[in-house]
Amino acid sequence: MLKQYSQKEIEEIFNSLPKELQETIVSVETANKIKKIASENQLNNIQANTLAKCIGRILMGLLKTEYLTQILQAELKIDNPKANRISQQIIRLIIAPVQTFIREKNAVYKNGSYNYQNSKITPSPEQTKPIIEGNIVDLSNNKNK
After folding, report:
1. pTM of the entire structure?
2. Can you give the residue ranges of every domain in the chain?
């Protein structure tokens, strides 16, 4: 299940985004692309709304595209091949054109955690992954060693 954020948290993150990402998130063009993806993949209205939420979270840096297929499979309750097809469409049509801005804003996923330059929001534990160094796995994600 996706982590729930308050309206204030979403606004704080949104306002700290580069203008290009803000425009992408609220654009009619992005909404039309999401509608097209949902229609082509026979998603119902609830699934389409969840899809839009997942895409918004990726654009805001709250989810990693690396996990998009698994997230869609769980959140939309669809099989893996369908989730993979939808993920590829999202990345190609929506994420790829603004990927540079996502990287610049969020430093993507660096050393086991997201780096929000202007935000106090941190991802939930299920949104992070263990750091693997050699044959030792650090599950704490503590970088102060």
Report:
1. 0.71
2. 7-138
